[in-house]
Amino acid sequence: MMKYKILIFTFCLSLLAFSQNKTTYTYAIKGLDTLKLDVYTPENIKDNDNLPVVLWMHGGGFSGGKRDNPDEVKLMNYLANHDYIGISISYRLLLKNSKTGSGCDCPKTLKQDIFRQAAIDYLDAAKYIIDNKETLQIDPTKIIAGGSSAGAEGVLNAVYLKAFFVDDISKYNNVSFAGVFSLAGALVNANYINKNNAIPTVLFHGTDDNLVPIGHAPHHYCSEDRLGYFLLDGSEVIADKLYEIGASYYFYKVIGGRHELCQIPFEQLDTVFHFFNKTIHLKQTIQTKRIVTKKP
Known about the structure:
InterPro entries: AB_hydrolase_fold, BD-FAE-like_dom, GDXG_lipolytic_enzyme. The protein is of the alpha/beta class.
């Protein structure tokens, strides 16, 4: 009998751990791509609640991945159980079925356009949720932009290089972000970060990432004679820039870490969102750089 009581108790706990509602919306149709987003809302949300939100962009080298990857779903469940609304989006995978992928045979001009289109897809998703803030019950002043790998690149460029990539920026006048959560991401040019647009930023990156550089270096470390030679500013450069201008950041740097730092760090999510609570909700300025060495 005791065995069955334990099983029932465990089952009830598991239900509590995933007490959220999921709804799917179409935020844009672009050519043959119908772009959707999944909204994960706490089950106990009240009618007059307007909650902070994490708008998440999955990774996959602009050729794969999906908004409901198991880790993305796990992250959304975490958020919904911590008084956030989690939103995971699809976007155009413009390198899907490409022979070159995003490596050194992919021309620089194509890479830059893919970065641009990913940023625009992300901004369109953000605009959609803001335009529908009452239905979704989100607080449009507390949107944390988050992403992994290719998704982190799309997110960082949407947040900090909107003026660089968007021709008609007035379309996104109502779009703003309260924070950024980047896993192994990079910017086209960190010099666009300034005191006026800097927001609390969380960065995870490995020093030996061979795909997305942690510093100022070519994407995939392509040599100058390759078509895919495309310089990026990774997390180290971004953190240094935020430090210089006195803006808040949390930089988790792994000596010897490779591109596995793009994986969602579930064991550190409490620390990440404690940082966002202090910097976004309590308006504190915090600059943290945590350096660890990868275990053999």
